[in-house]
């Protein structure tokens, strides 16, 4: 598409998509609205049928409706609704069992006009289908994408159109009484309050004028998209995301080595990209430390005097980042986030405390702490170089191609040059230096922040005080006036890290170009493109973090509607896939826009789960690229992953009672087992199907006291409710049986299945009632059931790769030490892994002429350190000279708590 000012036109296109996607109004239950915000029409639908251009409004409530419509122009919208769907719907939220619907199927924007009396008119060119409502009322076995086939009505409505909608509802929805719409355009006399209490889902031939609430978040997004369309200049990240070239942007510096926490190479590259590139992407599969990496990026940039905004669609994701800042980095000052009462109340509390109580000066200055850190870092690097040199020396003492007698001679002559104790002491020195560095790094971060705040309070306190007064303004109008006069740069110096959900962003920060040095998007697959554009405008540089193999944002916009919106902007071409609002997430459009793979980083170290729990996902979705950091030899008879075939039956309502009973039994056993434990292992209960998940939630709520469910943090939901969540124990109910193969096709959705099977940290128990043989060989559930989840993790060693390994193994066996040869941990095969009372120790065999000649690099030692595994280097020369002493040293390290 060739257009003048194409970026602005794209912003307008995405704004229209967002508005048409039914985000604008809250229409799930109009029965909750006060009576003066709704007027029902009697006898006949003259407006939607096109019989009259306007109809008079009569009754005592009309005057109040007119007043409310005028007073709340921004917060509310007047609509004319056609066909009401009402009744009880099982809830998808938490453990609440039911929710009530009373919502229109179709609606037009409406306006009031006065000509001696009040009349109502509709915008006949803007007929809306309540697509979120359609998804809620689908039959359990119906894929939600069927809403794309809903007959799109046009103005004026007529009987054939209404009949087509009725046939679709009969085939795909759970509604009763569908024949009632056949009386249209004649109307039923209805009582909205009674409809709001109706038990069965039904549809009525009713029309009403409704003053509906606009969604708070969507209202702000739409407002900012409109403002964005008037901007003359877009930020560098926004231009790039929209396909424009960027020449100039502001770079920063990065020092990952100064942060507490040993970062991986991928994480360090992420931090460098955030500092040096206008737009970059971080792909983070499940459990690979996305939130930890985001926190590291934020602190790294804060230490260079930069401001950082972290945004996400979900408050849960934001809260996890806050937790990482507080717990993993011990950051005490410098960030703001939404508290229990919301963002602004939380900011008021922090700022008021700062102004009234001040900040205590650090005991040691940030400059001195930083100098000490650099000295420690220099010592650590020197020790690493010496350690690496010793490893090379150990390797050279053995050599391929020499006769055995010559190798023995070399060992007698050169072996004394290598002192095994010294080699191991290098490692201890490095470990001690690392612990000291970690301890002092967090002190440096907090000292830096305290000094910055002290300086602000000394020189710029009046600006912070003015901002505090703005936050406490009684009206939004007064608050907006104060905000307009606020020096936001001073505020951002006081609080350089902001954690905000996208729906709150417009309420707490002005739409100013490049307001922040860095904007980070978390869970970007769940973020639609339109919502992200205002946040991108606030960025000098931006990083988009997510996983294309997990669930995307849900859009109700049909393909036909989207194409029409595209054509309305003057294009005669088919909409390019990369600009599809309904199918593309923020992650997708950014990936399509990046010109170099250097801007993309894959986080490949998986920390969340035991290896059996991530093995299928790693193999099926990530081509075995994930290094499983929790891999350990199996020392327990309790299996981490258990699949249970049940002969359950899926009822017509989508419920599987036998699987429900089994889930309750497992939950009961778990809560009894850990009833007296001070730390309760958390529990998640998941079914891919909404009806089964709601059924499980209701039954769990009945069977267990609320305090028990809270103490075990029990969450019952579909995969959509679990994205971004994790639990120690996951209980899965797939629900389908051999008679519900149509429903089983939904289980073959890769993004949904990937999320479903990767939430567990320690154990996963799976119930299924369908014979795998009834599914195609490529079906994900069949592949999951047939997969060898535990292959190679506990198998005894049968064939030794070399004599060195065999000798060490024999000595460990005689010492009655459990051990494994060539055991995989963190993407590495450790030569020998020993286990004693839960403590794991790796042994790196070095220098034997053959399989185990080569030593691990220092980077590999760091990887294994991050995985929590100590590794001792064992030179062949030392073993041949004094195997008993080497064995004693291994046992000594294995049997003590710390090096």
UniProtKB/TrEMBL annotation:
<dbReference type="Pfam" id="PF13087">
    <property type="entry name" value="AAA_12"/>
</dbReference>
<dbReference type="InterPro" id="IPR047187">
    <property type="entry name" value="SF1_C_Upf1"/>
</dbReference>
<feature type="domain" description="DNA2/NAM7 helicase helicase">
    <location>
        <begin position="264"/>
        <end position="552"/>
    </location>
</feature>
<protein>
    <submittedName>
        <fullName>AAA domain-containing protein</fullName>
    </submittedName>
</protein>
<dbReference type="InterPro" id="IPR027417">
    <property type="entry name" value="P-loop_NTPase"/>
</dbReference>
<dbReference type="Pfam" id="PF13086">
    <property type="entry name" value="AAA_11"/>
</dbReference>
<dbReference type="InterPro" id="IPR041677">
    <property type="entry name" value="DNA2/NAM7_AAA_11"/>
</dbReference>
<dbReference type="InterPro" id="IPR041679">
    <property type="entry name" value="DNA2/NAM7-like_C"/>
</dbReference>
<feature type="domain" description="DNA2/NAM7 helicase-like C-terminal">
    <location>
        <begin position="584"/>
        <end position="765"/>
    </location>
</feature>
<dbReference type="InterPro" id="IPR045055">
    <property type="entry name" value="DNA2/NAM7-like"/>
</dbReference>
